[in-house]
Amino acid sequence: MEESESTSLPVPAKSNGKWMSLENAGTILAERVTGQSVAKPSKARAEVTVREAAKQIERSDLETPAELSELRGRRLVATAASFQCWQELEDFINRATHHFQGQDEATLAADPQYREVCAYAQQLRARYDAAYHEATDVWTRQCLAENEVFEAGRPDWKPEDARRVAALLDRLGVSEQEREALWLTPEPINVASPICMTLAQLAVGADNPDPIQAALGAVGFDDGDINAVISGEMPIYLRDHRIQELVARAADVDTQAKNRAAA
Questions:
Q1: Contacts 24+ apart (CB under 8 A), 16-22
Q2: Using one digit for the tens of pLDDT, what is the confidence trace for 204-236?
């Protein structure tokens, strides 16, 4: 997620997750009343409910993978809370829009009840703004921690290695824009995709009867997590250091194969 420079309400302008800024919640309400529309955030971003995510324990020390797992849980809590705050704001604006429907901007500006509604909408907007920034901050911390764990396991990892990965993904049909979305945002990976199947087969061998399960297990996912990933209950991300390792292994095998072919 890229954070807006202003302090105004971030609202997704499109389903691709890019953010736009609106001056305030009163603007949203006025646009709804006068017949304009504002896009909603994708529910896919919520991922889990607050109750489900709260099973994780919040801690600040990021030295071990176990503590990193707890940070992932904290991010899920923050993301779910952000989405819940958005829903509260959205629901309130929808109700207010129905009440003031059809009035022009001059009439709205002179209506004291409308000003009170806008003031309350601003309070809801402030809550959402704070929740959004919290979710963004935790995601940034998770990204840094995931990278640290990955780099600790591959101390010789170099920029050219990252370029090998990018070249492999490009050859498999993952565009630069898609790679950036997967790397910079909590965009879940579709493990059932042909691309994931190819990466798994490269990492564990094309003759493996269950390459996805085997590849996930090889990089540290336990049986419960693997089942949750396969069923779609547990989203996974490119930033996850285990997924970074899986893709790196696939790139290693791919490079070795190309070197043998060129010899």
A1: 16/181, 17/42, 17/45, 17/181, 17/185, 17/187
A2: 999 999 999 999 999 999 999 999 999 999 999
Angle between helices 241-262 and 159-171 (to 10 degrees): 80
Q: How many helices (H) and strands (E) does the chain have?
A: 11, 2
CA-wise closest residue to 237 among 185, 174, 198, 171: 185
H/E stretch holding 19 reads strand 19-22
| Alpha carbon distance 175, 170 (integer Å) | 6
Helix, strand and coil content of the chain, in percent to the nearest 5, comes to 65, 5, 30
**Would you call 13 helix, strand, or coil by DSSP?**
coil
pLDDT digits (tens, 9 = 90+) for 151-172: 999 999 999 999 999 999 999 9
- Tell the residue number behind the tokens 């736009």, with chain if given: 20
Residue 157, CA distances (Å) to 61, 98, 143, 220, 252 in order? 24, 57, 17, 19, 11
Nearest CA to 67 among 182, 148, 151? Answer: 148
